[in-house]
């Protein structure tokens, strides 16, 4: 995307279509099992029912994560690129050639979410209120994409706020 890219409501709708496409893959159940922001985005998509969580999927032995090859313990996994796609990450070209492109997203990535003020080990009422507020801004077409550092700064809450 160009350095001054600001998403529109159409961009948000296209992101949601790409996200739903990814969630249609068998191994994407891992997002619904991950907790945090990936879990919430998976459930918001409406792509999963409780029965979808049984697994691993048939893809796990070929594309998943091995926990014990001898015992043949496998589970589904998501690549970092897939997690980025779920969170709506874009590469945005820098304003000058001396700068590196930045990565901006609709939602915080799992790394930005981890250890933020809303990451308390379960999905809290405060996290849900924040999520619904962010979603409303997106649906209104007025959301701005954020870098990882901007997400970390935005989601910094005091421990008493948790």
Notable features of this structure?
two-stranded antiparallel ribbon, 162 residues, 5 strands, globular, alpha+beta
The main β sheet shows up as:
3 strands, antiparallel
Derived structural class? alpha+beta
> What is the helix tally?
8
In terms of DSSP E residues, the strand content is 5-15%
Looking across the biggest beta sheet, what order are the strands in? 3-4-5
**Average pLDDT for all residues:** 81
H and E string = HHHHEEHEEHHEH
Give the termini separation: 35 Å
Helical percentage = 40-55%
DSSP, total strands? 5
Describe this entry's structure for a reader.
This protein has 162 residues and is an alpha+beta fold. Helices cover 42% and strands 10% of the residues. The chain has eight helices and five strands, in the order H-H-H-H-E-E-H-E-E-H-H-E-H. The strands form two sheets. It has a three-stranded antiparallel sheet with strand order 3-4-5. Strands 1-2 form a two-stranded antiparallel sheet. A hairpin with a 4-residue loop joins strand 1 (65-68) and strand 2 (73-75). Helix 1 (9-23) crosses helix 5 (80-87). The termini are far apart.
